[in-house]
Each structure stands twice: as C-alpha cells, then as structure tokens.
Amino acid sequence: MAWLYLFLAGLFEMAWAIGLKYTEGFSRLGSSLLTVAAMVVSLGLLGLALKTLPVGTAYAVWTGIGAVGTAALGIYLFGEPATAARLASVGLIVAGIVGLKLVT
C-alpha cells in the first residue's frame, strides 16, 4: 500500500508543479487554491508512504515521479523542447526510480 501512496503522492506533486504555472505568481485565486490543495495532498500521501518505506527511497521516488511527469507535461502543455538530451535525462530518472523500487 505504501508504494501506491507514494505513486499517488508523485502524481499530486506533478499537479502542483504544473499548477504553479497557472497561478501566475499566486495572483489567480482558483488556480492558487487548487495548487495548494495538491501540495497538501501530495505531502500527506508522502507522509503515509514514509510509515513503511525508507525516507531516502521514498523521497527520491516522489521527486522522480514529479520531475518526470512535470517534464513530460511541460513538453505537452507548454511546448517546451523535447531534445534527445532532455529525453535521455528523463530516462535516467525513470531508471533510477525503477532501480530504487527493485532494491527496496
């Protein structure tokens, strides 16, 4: 169950990272409230996962899911560049996440 909590926490991290773009410096109330709510949910789920998972593993996987998802959404939503080097770097993050899952 801890891995499910961690995965969901990573998804909510992606949501608040992308949400920050839409808050326009927290000047848009609706976007700001949704972003803060996603932050709270993400941290809450991370806290639940940390009850049983090692902190180093859980934190690295949480940030990795957020980084990979946010990079992918940045490419899709905002037209950010999808260069070979950038995609290879994202692939290395995915490899790290899989590696941590396999050894934990």
State the gist of this model.
This protein is mainly α and 104 residues long. The protein has four helices and no strands.
Tell me about this structure.
This protein is mostly helical. The model has no long low-confidence stretch (mean pLDDT 96). Helix 1 (2-23) crosses helix 3 (55-78) and helix 3 packs antiparallel against helix 4. The protein has helices at 2-23, 29-49, 55-78, 84-103. 84% of the residues lie in helices and 0% in strands. The relative contact order is 0.16.
Main sheet specs: none
How helical, in percent, are the residues?
over 70%
Strand content: under 5%
> So what's the overall shape?
flat
Please count the helical segments: 4
The whole-number mean of residue pLDDT values reads 96
Order of helical and strand elements: HHHH
Number of strands: 0
> What value does the Rg take, in angstroms?
14 Å
**End-to-end gap:** 14 Å
Structural class of the helices, strands and pairings? mainly alpha
Q: Which stretches are poorly predicted, pLDDT < 50 over at least 5 residues? A: none
List the helices and strands and how they pair.
Blueprint: H1 2-23, H2 29-49, H3 55-78, H4 84-103
Helix pairs in contact: 1-2, 1-3, 3-4
